[in-house]
Amino acid sequence: MTLFRTLTGVALATGMLTAGISQAQEPTFFRIGTGSAGGTYFPIGGTIANGISSPPGARPCEEGGQCGVPGLIAIAQSTTASVFNNTAVQNGELEAGMAAADVTRSMYLGEGKFDGKPHEKLRIVANLFPEDLHLVLPKGSSIENLGDLEGKRVGIAQAGSGTQVAVLQMLEAWGVTRDNMDEAELNNSQSAERLADGQLDAYFYAAGWPVAAMVQLSSTKGMELHSFTDEDLAKINEIIPAYIPSSIPSGVYEGVDYDVKTSAVSALLVVSSDLDEELVYGITSALWNDNTRKLLDNGHAKGKQITPDTALDGIEALGVPLHSGAQRFYEEAGLL
């Protein structure tokens, strides 16, 4: 909390500079691409949108009103997640997006699936939270490794998602491809429904736990989560360095009363280099003030893991630049 009070001082200084004109200025709309409603991106994106907003005419922060950027109206939009969000940010169709670190790096550099198509405008505002890979199985079922999914009906996440890009790479390393499995491109909620109805043998989804659709699935039909071996986690990390060993604790989901070894990738808040430096400076300030801290702590469980202490974790190694406005904030706050 001490660090947050320090950061709030920086944010309030920014707010004081603009408070005098907040009543007169036209609203600035700021669209944040998230993910499906049954995942983690959407509720977290909504909390961030709330925290950074302060519509024209709103009561000032110091009088108990909103403590975001004066004049800003941020809106969280449900999308197909990482790939879509980064593409829309690059093309100016969204002001910001939430996206997985591995996909953001590949798209920025134009590597892998995006070979020759660099998304050079992508810029990072903050590392947010770890997204754990969930490999969901029907209650009472299990597999030894990913190779057992050959010939099975498998949900590989929706097209345009970072999960799908990563999962197809992982499966290929175990000899499983679109040619020898019955794949389904579905969002998390759709996948959970199909699994419950017996139409899927397994599905993948990378998100911060607990995931709403899985909470519902585990409390109704029941489910299992595949726990990877240490050797398999090392293999995944070698294939996709941004996916690092992690775990989902016992009891997060009803009936899953064992610790689950899995891989996780960082979720990022991404904007375009075209955005004004002052605007992004103000947004970064608002993201880390005490008011947004309360919203994050009282919202989705993953919100508590979104902190200024971890905002820059892994960013330098990722190779995708910070936006100049975010960089200025972190420098002034003594975090960079």
Give a structural overview.
With 336 residues, the protein is α/β, with parallel strands linked by helices. It is built from 12 helices and 10 strands. Helix 1 packs across helix 9, helix 2 runs antiparallel to helix 10 and helix 9 packs across helix 12. The longest helix is centred in the first third of the chain and has 18 residues. It is globular, with a radius of gyration of 20 Å. The two termini are 19 Å apart. The N terminus is likely disordered.
Keywords:
D-Maltodextrin-Binding Protein, domain 2; single chain; 2 domains; disordered N terminus; alpha/beta; 336 residues; 36% helix; ten-stranded mixed beta sheet; 12 helices
Count, helices: 12
**CATH T-level fold name of the largest domain:** D-Maltodextrin-Binding Protein, domain 2
Instruction: Count all strands and give the number.
Output: 10
The CATH superfamily of the largest domain is known as Periplasmic binding protein-like II
Low-confidence region ranges: 1-6, 11-23
On the 0-100 scale, what is the average pLDDT?
Answer: 92
Q: Can you write the helix and strand succession as a string?
A: HEHEHEHEEHEHEHEHEEHHHH
Structural class: alpha/beta
Give Rg in angstroms: 20 Å
- Tell me the fraction of residues in β-strands, as a range: 15-25%
**Level-1 CATH class name of the largest domain:** Alpha Beta
The tally of structural domains comes to 2
